[in-house]
Amino acid sequence: MPDSMDSLFGTTADELNVSRETLDRLSIYQALLVKWQKKTNLVAPSTIDDYWSRHVGDSIQCRHIKPDAHHWADIGSGGGFPGLVVAADFAGQSDHSMVLVESNAKKCAFLREVSRKLGLGAEVVNDRIENYIRPDNAPDVVTARALSNLNALLSYCEPWVSAKCVGLFHKGREYRSEIEDCYDKWQFDLIEHRSKVSEESVILEISNLTRRHQD
User: Fold this and answer.
1) b vs e for 47-71, b when ≥16 Cβ sit within 10 Å of the residue's Cβ?
2) 3-state secondary structure labels for all residues of the chain
3) Domains of the chain
4) Global pTM value
């Protein structure tokens, strides 16, 4: 399958900074994605041929930012990016976990199939995000990619990120205006990680989230 690699990430284990075993899992993932995409819209059709750069390379950055995190959650998981890619990298480590929260039942069926075929042991939750997130089930890291604007993400994740959880949120070229739109309502610590996949994109690392005032 063709794949345009115009970033710092490639298609080898060394280029992605993952193990050979992780690369093998991700190759199986690719085959399953192509198969399921024919009947379920998991990713934008125009990006299916850019699996390694657009999806894997973009996702694995989260794992590189927080390599010591053990317990992860991915909200609005869709086709599994970045959650399944991160889980593929720590597969087999019993002290690690991944929860994938997705409201679409068909997409959940895909996520479960990938997790089973790759031996990831990821938990797939078929529910709305606001129903699942509570202070008592906070992970170490919560991720979201192409889900909603930053203000909405912070509202979803407030019970987690206001505690010890860190949010890693993929954002595109308009990320600065999204940050500015949040300042009247939210206070938080922010680290901007420049994307290695796209010059116009970042991963926003957000922690210590608090409301400036109640609605």
Assistant:
1) ebebbbbbbbbbbbbbbebbeebeb
2) CCCCCCCCCCCCHHHHCCCHHHHHHHHHHHHHHHHHHCCCCCCCHHHHHHHHHHHHHHHHHHHHHCCCCCEEEEECCCCCCCHHHHHHHCCCCCCCEEEEEECCHHHHHHHHHHHHHHCCCCEEEECCHHHHCCHHHCCCEEEECCCCCHHHHHHHHHHHHCCCCEEEEEECCCHHHHHHHHCCCEEEEEEEEECCCCCCCEEEEEEEEEECCCC
3) 13-211 (3.40.50.150)
4) 0.91
Q: What is the pLDDT of residues 79-126, one digit of tens each?
A: 999 999 999 999 999 999 999 999 999 999 999 999 999 999 999 999
